[in-house]
Amino acid sequence: MTATPDQTAGDSGGAAAARATSADAIDPRFASLPQRPGKIIAVHLSYPSRADQRGRRPADPSYFLKPSSSVAASGSDIERPAGTELLAFEGEVALVIGTTARDVTAAEAWDHVGWVTASNDFGVYDLRANDKGSNVRSKGRDGFTPIGPDLLDARVVDPDALRVRTWVDGELAQDDTTRDLLFPLAQIVADLSQHLTLEVGDVILTGTPAGSSVVAPGQTVEVEVDAPTAPGAPRSGRLVTRVVAGAHEFDASLGSLPAVDDTQRAEAWGSREAAGLPAEQPAAATAGAGASAASAARPSLDPSLRERLERTPVAALSGQLRKRGLNNVTIDGVRPLHPGAKLVGVATTLRFVPNREDLFASHGGGQNAQKRAFDAVGAGEVIVIEARGEAGSGTLGDILAIRAHARGAAGIVTDGGVRDVDAVTAVGIPVYTRGAHPAVLGRKHVPWDVDVTIGVGGTTVQPGDVIVGDADGVIVIPPSLVEEVVDAALAQEDEDAWIAARVAEGHPIEGLFPMNAAWRAKYDAEQQTPAGHKNGASR
């Protein structure tokens, strides 16, 4: 511990006297701290390198709490719980509050930080599903917050010039500084102080840079924080943690069990490549809070194209796709809850697999694929759900419909059932379904994956496909063809309207539908006149 011998608890410097008189001094877990922390507050994202790896840069800092019982000293072991695979390390700069802070400004905030040291915000991704955001189970376990070993006096370091490095089995895995944080350390302290009182001994974990990854039993992780530009270049010393295998099995009767999928693996390891997963398709998802990376990759419809699609009947689009050799592009068997509403948007996909009890136990709870899809859908997108034509349970209900509507989704298409059908209809978002059914999801389906190629109503749908629906049904248009198809369909609509007007005048269909050369000449000539052009444009 780096501190002067005459500093006392509450001073902005060291903590020797406080530690000497603390009741927790005999507890080796808190040997590197002035006292047992009243609270530990962790920042979700603060380093640009980590934010870019996650595919999103938040506008404001967000936080979660860790219990003080999770603190561990340098040299401790950490258990990877039995039945889990994704224990990930996160080397971080830890701030220890030296004087009480409440409603302080960013300019004042650093004066309330007493010490700086190293920390490791361990987490088990297998346990995130039910607690994502709170991280209670995934990050709150005993030993999951190693801190220390030495404290740096906050008065002698520049908060914008701290460095954090992490080694795994001696190999450097993380190396970054606080110079370009999304949220400077002083801002974090000030922001927290306007919501709660920061008390002496409280710890703030300030986020991790890129390089966080998975470790297994038998490996050793070391973290060090230093201030290279400060006098004497003070260091926290190496915070050493050994990973061991836990033996205690989880009791399924008490709560949800560990569950992993490829999204969790990619996030825990840092990338799909590091996790040994195949490269994802351009529009594949890496789910997360808010708009997903897949959503950001999907093209949106420009206003002009959307307006033309809204004017074009599905039947006309179907005819044009057939002319181009595409016959299997309709989502069959679904009907609209709002027959008078037009559906136009870009597909984002959700896949259900047949229910199997063990798989539903591992994939059906928490922030499962279904909830991720509805939480990440973007404005103007259509959630398309593969339910294998199985309408024996609901694939969504009113809460999810409200969520999609609130996020600006263009609509929902499912070849399964809908629960709470009256309430879903009342939400107002266009929904196409095989019908109503009162049963919950788990009767027939397991939510499995998002933003993958799926089969719905006899056709294939990929993320980014253009979806158009009306009272005739729903059609899928490849993005590369949509401009060509909609313009040709509108031109055909103008032509059909002209033919219909001639039939209404009493002309026989023979030679007119389709038009022979004589009728074609009359039509072309009329289209050259302002009135004829206007009539065509009105369609």
TrEMBL record:
CDD domains, sorted: RraA_family
Disordered as annotated region, ranges: 1-31, 264-306
Alphabetic keyword roster: Hydrolase, Magnesium, Metal-binding
Annotated Mg(2+) binding sites: D420
Annotated Low complexity bias: 8-25, 274-300
Pfam families: FAA_hydrolase, RraA-like
Transmembrane intervals: none
Binding residue positions for substrate: G397, D398, I399, L400, R419
Full protein name: Fumarylacetoacetate hydrolase family protein
Organism encoding this protein: Schumannella soli
